[in-house]
Design goal:
This protein is mostly loops. The protein is built from no helices and two strands.
């Protein structure tokens, strides 16, 4: 498992990357391309995902507590069992519960 806690990966091309179980807590991922990435069980608490491309990403059981996903592209992202808090910021008009995420 990669430990990328607080790493600055803003604008990085991580498309199709295997980041399953990675520690990305507090990481800067704004405008990063994470399309199709495997983020199953990844720790993304307090991560900055503003305007990140997460289309088709696998966020199954990922920890999104206090993450900022404002303006992120979550088209066809799999959020089954992903955890989020009331401080998690979602894109406008996005319903995390309908996408299978769980508020903790």
């Amino acid at each position: 498992m990669a430990n990328l806690s607080k790493a600055n990966l803003s604008g990085a091309n991580l498309s199709m990357a295997n980041l399953s179980g990675a520690n990305l807590s507090g990481a800067g991922l704004s405008e990063a391309d994470l399309s199709g990435a495997d983020l199953i069980g990844a720790h993304l608490s307090e991560a900055n995902l503003i305007k990140a491309n997460l289309s088709g990403a696998y966020l199954i059981k990922a920890d999104l507590s206090m993450a900022n996903l404002s303006g992120a592209d979550l088209y066809e992202a799999n959020l089954s069992g992903a955890l989020y808090s009331d401080a998690t910021k979602w894109p406008d008009h996005f319903d995390p519960d309908a996408a299978g995420a769980i508020e903790v």
